[in-house]
Request: fold
Amino acid sequence: MRIDLNSDLGESFGPWPMGDDAALMASISSANVACGFHAGDPGTMRATLALAKASGVAVGAHPGFPDLVGFGRREMKATPQEVEDFVVYQVAALAGIAATQGMRLQHVKAHGALYNLACRDRALANAIARAVAAIDPRLILFGLPNSELIKAGQQAGLPVAAEVFADRAYEADGSLASRQKAGSVIHDQATVVARAITMVRERRVVAIDGSEIALEADTICLHGDTAGAADLARAVRAGLEAAGIQIRRLGQTSRFIPTLKGQI
Reply:
């Protein structure tokens, strides 16, 4: 069995550091690089891409709402056209910097509130899918399993990857529990590792109300901005490998190989 491990990186801004990207790179197979709207800046984008290249980690764009103060985790009112425009802007910026390093993007994963809104709002999901397809129809669009974001990507002809979160609590409908809710972020390593293994091997997760949710999993997200993220990522990778599950970027997973031929 194989699974991709991704993390949101490049979220420092100017002199303000966020996370330990170098340590996380050793455990993941794909990096979602912030594009300057919720976090990140041109220098951080360049440095993060270089670090990923040196680590053999695939890279993708991580566009969010233009909300540096709220770290992109606050819902904002934006029309589908506005969303399409600022996703194009962010993905194109990262793709351009990647090209200067001989790299190509593997995927696009929306950040924070934009991601959560698009997973349930088809109009916003369509806007993101249009933006991604316009830049490169080979880019893989990430989204929650069975979400509007996945459906929009499929309709736009994009390859899609069902993303699951081992360190986040789920509602019974398959959405992520709000960060305002107690227990929404899971910090216990043993619990996160066990959830990751169950997600991959049994295609299910227990929701916050105790119900069981069936899900598909192409990639597991581990947040890079939480305390102890690098240690947690190491533990998850070790636990998955001990369970006989190989960590491979999506380009090394059979159904994505034709799409990603020639990429890093």
Observations:
- Strands lie at 2-9, 30-34, 58-62, 107-108, 140-143, 160-165, 204-206, 212-214, 219-221, 246-247.
- The first strand starts at residue 2 and ends at 9.
